[in-house]
Amino acid sequence: MSLSVFSYESLVHAVSGAVGSVTAMTVFFPLDTARLRLQVDENRKARSTPAILAEIVKEEGLQAPYRGWFPVICSLCCSNFVYFYCFHGLKASWLKGKQSSPSTDLVIGIAAGVVNVLLTTPLWVVNTRLKLQGSKFRNADIRPTNYSGILDAFAQIIRGEGVGALWNGTLTSLLLVLNPAIQFMIYEALKRQLRRGVPRELSSVEVFIIGAVAKAVATTVTYPLQTIQSILRFGQFNESTTESKLLSSLRTIKCLLVNRVRKYGMLGLFKGLEAKLLQTVLTAALMFLLYEKIASCTFRIMGLSSNHYKKR
């Protein structure tokens, strides 16, 4: 493997992506709260995002939309650092200065996503539970939890459910590596199209728009699996213990998908999509904007050549 995987450029991309994503998520965090509540609380009626947020604030207080912010930000920071580092490191090693293509971006995005999922899934399992702790659910079957923080959540999950529970939803997460892979493929392709072979830094408006378009397509295509992923991470679905873990996970995913369709029809698979699109598109657009600006500024400050950066 080329040493370009372990370069300053990969580190700059990773830090810029992490900082951009944390800032963007903080700004639009309440929208993610509304989306998650619609996904896991089956008895909550699908309503507009403002209506859901107003309902949450009325029932649980003004701080409720930001419940679980810290563990989510920690998970997001680690996750995006790993993903951006792997994506740009592998890309630099693979291309060695050559022009990329959509198929190459997709393959590299999938590889980076697999590494990211295997390393950071425990963080996402814990933050999903902390974010939903103390919520007032319409579904009476949901069991309440009592975690005092991130470390306590890790300890209780391991003690009560076993170490394997920290990787709940890993199979759906591995399937969902297509989400960031598709997102980065479209984003990079649109960047190349806008530049049309001329190395230049895109404007803020251009970056914001192509970031939003890329995320909107990726989210819509993979949303049903994202819903199942959230349910599994919440740990309120009992998987079979009499068969292999892989077979049990596949049956669980199939069962959850089928049950949701039977209860609510095909549209049930997309419950909360409006809130998700509103949150994820705005967050991704702002994240890419901040990422590009931070990376570009850092390269200039460090005196590194930005030619490779602009040709990506």
Which features would summarize this protein structure in a list?
single chain, 312 residues, mainly alpha
Q: Write the H/E string, N to C.
A: HHHHHHHHHHHH
Level-2 CATH architecture = Alpha/alpha barrel
The general outline is globular
* Radius of gyration, in angstroms, nearest whole number: 20 Å
Quaternary class: single chain
What is the CATH class designation?
A: Mainly Alpha
The total tally of domains equals 1
Indicate the mean pLDDT.
82
According to CATH, the fold-level topology is Mitochondrial carrier fold
Subcellular location: Membrane
Transmembrane segments: 12-31, 68-86, 106-126, 171-190
Pfam family, one: Mito_carr
Solcar repeats: 8-93, 100-193, 202-297
Tell me briefly what this model is.
One of its GO terms (cellular component) is peroxisomal membrane. By secondary structure, this protein is an all-alpha fold. The chain has helices at residues 8-27, 29-40, 49-60, 69-95, 102-132, 150-161, 170-175, 178-195, 204-234, 245-264, 273-302, 307-310.
